[in-house]
Amino acid sequence: MCGRFTLTTRDFRQLAAALDAEDADDAFALYRPRYNIAPTDPHWIVREKQERRELLPATWGLVNSWAPDAKGAARQINCRAETALRRPAFRDAFVRRRCVVPADGFFEWTGSQQARRPLWFHEPHGDLLLFAGLYETWTDPATATRHRTFTIITTGANPLMAPVHDRMPVVLRPDDIADWLHVPSRDAEAYAARLAPLLRPPPEDLLVATPVSARVNSVKNDDPGCLAPAGDEPVAAPRLL
Question: What is the pTM of this model?
Answer without folding.
Answer: 0.93
